[in-house]
Amino acid sequence: MIRKSNRKNIDRAKAIDYYKVALNFYEGAIVAKEFEYWNAAGVLIVHSAIAFADALSIKFGGVKSQGEDHFQILTLLKEILDDSQVNKKALNHLEKIISHKNSVSYSGDIYEERDFENMWKHFVRFKGWAENFLTP
Q1: Which pairs from 18-23 meet CB under 8 Å and 24+ separation?
Q2: What is the DSSP letter of 106?
Q3: Contact of 134 with 54, CB cutoff 8 Å
Q4: SS3 letters for 4-22?
Q5: In sequence order, which residues have a C-beta less than 8 Å from that of residue 4 and are 6 or more positions away?
Q6: Are the beta carbons of 10 and 64 closer than 8 angstroms?
Q7: pTM for the whole thing?
Q8: Secondary structure (3-state) at 63
Q9: Are 49 and 29 in contact, with CB atoms under 8 Å apart?
């Protein structure tokens, strides 16, 4: 039996709010980047990517991933979106971003510019893909 992701129903109109939150985190990451606050910028990238993903799942599925495991949003989006190569690549970028969450936030690891730039590369690609679906 295939287990569905843990989710809750959300009014699809809320997708725009999550999109705005994603942009807010993104803009915060740019400011942190300018001051070379690499961990702060990385945390903001992770949260921006998650908010973009939530906006997509709400817009297309009327649902949002629920729980502490942020990787569940990947399962949810795979259930909602078609199985195209473009979508697979975008979700791969999201997975790489989320994989940094614990190390950039909680582990005490000091992120340097190169660490941030690696995350940023995946984020820019994921954000561009997501915005194709989310921009009004």
Answers
A1: 18/51, 18/52, 18/54, 18/55, 18/58, 18/64, 19/51, 19/52, 19/55, 19/134, 21/51, 22/48, 22/49, 22/51, 22/52, 22/54, 22/55, 22/127, 22/130, 23/48
A2: T
A3: no
A4: CCCEEECCHHHHHHHHHHH
A5: 75, 79
A6: yes
A7: 0.91
A8: strand
A9: no
The mean predicted confidence, pLDDT, of the chain is 90
Helices (H), ranges, the chain: 15-34, 38-61, 72-80, 85-98, 101-105, 113-134
The pLDDT tens digits for 96-123 are: 999 888 777 777 778 789 999 999 999 9
Spatial separation of the C-alpha atoms in residues 4 and 65, rounded to whole Å: 11
Structure tokens, 2: 């295939």
Give, as one character, the DSSP assignment of residue 99: T
The token duo for 10 is 């959300």
Separation between Cα atoms, residue 110 and residue 23, nearest integer Å: 25
Query: Are the C-beta atoms of residues 41 and 33 closer than 8 Å to each other?
Result: yes
Cα–Cα distance for residue pair 47/26, rounded to 1 Å: 8
